[in-house]
Amino acid sequence: MILEHLSNILELFYPNDCIGCTRSLSKNDNILCTHCFHDLPYAYYTQQENNPLDQLFFGKIPLEFATSLLIFQPKGIVQNLIHELKYNNNQKIGALLGTLLSQEILSVKNLKPIDYIIPVPLHKNKLKSRGYNQLTSIGNNLSKHLKAPMLENILTKVNASETQTKKNKLARWENAKHNFQIQKNDSLKGKHVLLFDDVITTGATIESCAIELLKTQNITLSIASIAHTINF
Questions:
Q1: Stretch 63-76: mean pLDDT, rounded?
Q2: Fewest Cβ atoms closer than 10 Å to its Cβ: which of 60, 64, 122, 219?
């Protein structure tokens, strides 16, 4: 009774609002109201032959599969979710998105069991200043549902490059290449590895990471993201 009373008081000062529409959430809602949750712009890539991510990486990196959960739209609900997770450390969002992305991956036809999950890493300086990698909470839930361990230290970012946000396609690639390095680790040999990020736009960052991972003998690589920016 006391805890319930305290909870009601806290909600007066820190209202539990929907990330999408800012309306107050009901007790049964989490992060998003029912309307916004069902209004999410799902990509449904696992239901498409030669989906847009397959096309983006075709001829560049060999992949088992490529998928994304949502379509990223500027100033849309997905941008709000990613921003809250990335800059305000809202771990509930990471848990929700990781669970939803897991369900998307598990729907892949003839899915080959995933052995390891690897997030796109942050440079150590950015990790120190921010205090967390926004991909960790997503990866923890991927690991839980896909029953595969997440490895956060095998792939490292060696150059503290500038933000990609306002760069064009060529500039993003120049900014991303040679930025990542794989640590020598025989555990990846012959394994199916899932590389994931929050948002894929030009694919430059993922491609740079993938090139490093593909240096491993007989590795099979898949990629996934929370969101994909199209018409960039």
A1: 95
A2: 60
Fill in the DSSP letter of residue 17.
Answer: B
Closest of 187, 191, 165, 185 to residue 176, by C-alpha: 165
In the three-class reduction of DSSP (H, G, I as helix; E, B as strand; rest coil), residue 171 is classed as: helix
Segments forming the whole domain that contains residue 8: 1-39
Question: How many C-beta atoms surround the C-beta of residue 225 within 10 A?
Answer: 27
Please give the C-alpha separations between residue 140 and each of 2, 36, 58, 163, in angstroms, as whole numbers: 33, 24, 29, 25
The pTM of this model reads: 0.85
Instruction: At 174, list the tokens.
Output: 């120049």
What does residue 85 show for φ and ψ, rounded to 5 degrees? -75, -45
Considering the domain architecture, whether residues 19 and 46 belong to the same structural domain is answered as no
CA distance 82 to 94: 9
When pLDDT is cut at 50, 70 and 90, the band that residue 196 belongs to is very high
- Structural domains counted in the chain: 2
Give the residue from 60, 14, 66 showing the smallest Cα distance to 177: 60
What average pLDDT does the chain have? 87
